[in-house]
Amino acid sequence: MGSKTNPSGHRARRPLSIFAVLGLCCFFYLLGAWQRSGSGKGDNLALKVNKLMTDCTVLPNLSFESHHNDVEIVEPSEPKAKVFKPCDVKYRDYTPCQEQDRAMTFPRENMIYRERHCPAEEEKLRCLIPAPKGYTTPFPWPKSRDYAYYANVPYKSLTVEKAVQNWVQFQGNVFKFPGGGTMFPQGADAYIDELASVIPIADGSVRTALDTGCGVASWGAYLLKRNVLAMSFAPKDNHEAQVQFALERGVPAVIGVLGSIRLPYPSRAFDMAQCSRCLIPWTSNEGEYLMEVDRVLRPGGYWILSGPPINWKTYYQTWKRSKEDLKAEQTKLEELAESLCWEKKYEKGDIAIWRKKINAESCKRKSSNLCDLANADDVWYQKMEACKTPLPEVTNKNEVAGGELKKFPARLFAVPPRIAQGNVPGVTAKSYQEDNKLWKKHVNSYKRINQLIGTTRYRNLMDMNAGLGGFAAALDSPKSWVMNVVPTIAENTLGVVYERGLIGIYHDWCEGFSTYPRTYDLIHANGLFSLYRGKCNLEDILLEMDRILRPEGAIIIRDEVDVLNKVKKIVGGMRWEAKMVDHEDGPLVPEKILVAVKEYWVATTKKDSSNEE
C-alpha cells in the first residue's frame, strides 16, 4: 500500500527547523554576552559564583586564630583512630635525644654526654607532650625579642646566675631580655657595632652566621634587624632552658654542642661565626674544634673570638689562670688559625677577628693534614677529625673557592654556585628557577587557605623536607624565619639553602629533633611521609611534630593522597583539627594538602582534676 504522506511537505518544513535552531543559538549567545558585560540582572549571581569558586580553598570551619583562653578539651566520643593520651606533666619539657638521665650514662670526655643520645624503640614516649599550666601564645615579633611569658618557660635560675651580665631578668609574670651577654653586658647592639667596623655586616655581604655556645641568643636576636640570620646552638646543661628562651624570643636556635661529632651543617655554609666566651677549648685535640668551624665557614668568612685567651693580661686573675698558660694558649691559637689559612684582622680589648682566605692559593702556611673533600658534607653522627677540609680548586688567586655569592637579598633567588657548577644531581639552573616559581605558587595557595601566614602570628617556621629552600624563599619576610631541614635520607641540598642566604640543618626524622617542646608556630612537610614510608613509624614522626608545635600552631602537609589518608587517620587521635584540600591545579591531581591546627590544652594534675569535679 502506498504512503499518503506528502514528501514535498517534509522538504518545506526542514528549512524552517534550521532557521529556528539558528535563531535560538543567536538569542542565547546575545543573552550571554549581555549578562557577562555587566548589564544584566544575572551579573550579581555570576559574580557570587565566581567568588565562591575563587575562595573554595578557604576553610571556614578551620580556625587558625588564637582561642586558648576559652577553648575546652573535648575528647572525641567516637574516635576513628587510636587516641593518644597526654604524657605525664613531668615530661612537659621533654627532649628525646638530650635527656639528662640518659646523658649522664655517657662519658664526659669531649662533651660526649651532651651530644645526641636517642631512646631505643621500646623507650620512646608515644603520648602527647603537655604545655605547662597557664601557657600563653608568645608575644609577637619584635616584642618577643625582649619579652617572654614566665608561664611558658618557668625557669628563673639564669636571672640569678647571669644577673650581672644582663642575660635575662624576671619582672612580674614575664622575663625581660635586656640584650646583654657574658662578653657584652652593655648590650649586643654596641658589640655588633664594633664587629661591623671590621666586618661588612651592613651591605648584605654577611647573611648567615653561627653562634657556638649562644646563651639566650641575644647576638642572633640583635643581628636580625641587620638582616643577618644566625644559627645559634648551646647544650642542654646547667644553664637551664637557654635554647628554649631563644626560641621563645623568636630567634633561631637548636640544642647542640661542639663535642666529638661533626656539626649538622654543610661545608662552606656560614659567612660569619663567633664564640663569645663559649669556653670551647679551641687548641685541644690537635685543634679539631677550630678545624670544624673552618669546615662550615665560607671562603672569605669571619671568625670572632671574645673570651679566653683574648685580653688575658686583663683577665688572667679573674679566670684563675697563669699568664704563662694563657699566653701559650693564644700563641698556639694564632698558629692554628694561620695553618687554616685565616688572617687576623683585628684585636682590641676583648675581641679578636680573623678572616678566612677566599682560596688556598694565597695561604702563607698550608696544612699537610687534609680531610677528604668528597666527605665534607657527610656529617650525621660522623666523628670529627683533626684535619683541614680542603677548599675547591680555583683557576686564579682572585677567584672565590666554591663560587662567589651575590649580596643579600639578590642572593636569595640568584642561581647558587653549587647548582651552577653542577654539584647537585638532577638540578640545573633552569630547573632551579622552575622550582622557585612552583613554590611561589604553592605559598600563594597556602595563604589563601590560612590567611595568617605571612603575619606575625607565625614567627618560628619549619620546613621538614626543605629541598632547595623554595618554601622559605617564597615566604621571606622579617616577620618570620624558617628552619630548613634536609633529611639525611634525602638528596643533599642544604649547601644550596645556605648559598641562598637561608639557614637549616641535617636531621633524621626517625629520631627526635634537637629542640624543646612548643618551639615552632607552623610546620610544613612536603613529601616527607612518602620519603619515610617503610623507613620508620609515621606515627612517631607525627608525635614529634606535635611535640615541637606550639598550642594552636598550624601544620601543612603536602603529599600523595594515599599517604595523606594514613596520616589523617593517625592525627584523628592527636587533638588536631585537620582537613584535606585539593592540589592547586584541581581534584584530579593525586597530590593533596592536609592542613591542621593543634588544639590548645595544658597539663593537668590529679589535684586539678579533683578540683574540677
UniProtKB/TrEMBL annotation:
EC number: 2.1.1.-
Subcellular location: Endomembrane system; Golgi apparatus membrane; Membrane
Keyword match NAD: no
Any one annotated GO CC term: endosome
Protein name according to UniProt: Methyltransferase
Record-annotated membrane-spanning stretches: 16-34
Coiled-coil features, chain-numbered ranges: none
GO biological process, one term: methylation
Keyword vocabulary terms for this entry: Glycoprotein, Golgi apparatus, Membrane, Methyltransferase, Signal-anchor, Transferase, Transmembrane, Transmembrane helix
Pfam families given in the database record: Methyltransf_29
Group of enzyme by EC: transferase
Homology family: Belongs to the methyltransferase superfamily.
Membrane topology: Single-pass type II membrane protein; Single-pass membrane protein
MF GO annotations: methyltransferase activity
